[in-house]
Amino acid sequence: MQGVIKKLVADRGFGFIAADRGDVFFHHSAVVNGQFDDL
Fold first, then answer.
1. Any idea where the domains of the chain sit in the sequence?
2. For residue range 7-24, what is the model confidence (pLDDT) as tens digits?
């Protein structure tokens, strides 16, 4: 999946991605090939 991070709640470990089909929730455990802290 690709999109733009719309909102990041770093202290709680989640955020939302603005994608073509609408906003998508993501949790820090789902971040692959990178570090959540780098977002």
1. 1-28
2. 999 999 999 999 999 999
